[in-house]
């Protein structure tokens, strides 16, 4: 039976025009699959080209990591407020902002207020360490799972930390525990 299957292909030799058509059919079948992925999200195709690329959006610096963007710091170190968005658009592609890198805002001495976007799942080690004037952190993310070692070391002792009401216990008892926050930090529930 495999010989029978091979025989129609050789018999198609006189119709070699049809053979490329037959060969072209699987290729377009594969190409629409490839074309559909970039057409639907534009991220998979772009990711392979953009992964590792650095860019600036607003007053923050980012690096592309797969389908997401990672905050690596601010354009200027003397910022007083940082608003980490849920997503950013760069090079005609949208990226969810999922992480704040290790030491991203370390020793930003004038930083007072940080807003963490809803898609952020990780704060890297020492990400806000040494921000001695950081007195207010608002967490909009309900998917924050990991905070690196000493992320909030040497921050203001009178810090107010606002977390989603639905994640209050988890965040205050587990996620933020032992991450360098002063014992005098006050936690507040925010709507959401």
Number of strands: 12
> What is the assembly state of the chains in this entry?
single chain
Termini separation:
65 Å
How much strand? 25-35%
Quote the average pLDDT: 82
What is the gyration radius calculated from CA atoms? Answer: 25 Å
The parts where pLDDT drops under 50 for at least 5 residues are 1-47
Number of helices: 6
How does the overall form come out from the CA principal axes?
Answer: globular
| Residues in helices, as a percent range | 25-40%
Helix/strand-derived category reads: alpha/beta
Main sheet attributes: strand count, strand direction, barrel closure: 7 strands, mixed
H and E string? HHHHHEEEEEEEEEEEHE
């Amino acid at each position: 039976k495999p010989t029978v299957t091979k025989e129609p292909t050789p018999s198609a030799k006189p119709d070699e025009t049809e053979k490329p058509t037959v060969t072209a059919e699987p290729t377009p079948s594969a190409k629409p699959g490839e074309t559909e992925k970039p057409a639907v999200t534009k991220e998979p195709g772009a990711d392979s080209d953009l992964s590792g690329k650095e860019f600036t959006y607003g007053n923050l610096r980012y690096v592309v990591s797969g389908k997401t963007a990672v905050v690596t710091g601010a354009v200027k170190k003397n910022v007083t407020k940082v608003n980490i968005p849920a997503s950013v658009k760069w090079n005609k592609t949208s990226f969810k902002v999922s992480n704040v890198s290790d030491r991203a805002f370390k020793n930003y001495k004038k930083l007072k207020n940080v807003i963490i976007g809803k898609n952020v799942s990780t704060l890297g080690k020492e990400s806000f360490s040494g921000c001695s004037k950081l007195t207010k952190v608002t967490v909009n993310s309900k998917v924050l799972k990991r905070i690196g070692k000493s992320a909030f070391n040497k921050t203001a002792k009178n810090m107010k930390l606002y977390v989603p009401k639905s994640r209050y216990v988890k965040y205050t008892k587990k996620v933020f525990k032992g991450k360098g926050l002063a014992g005098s930090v006050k936690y507040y529930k925010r709507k959401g």
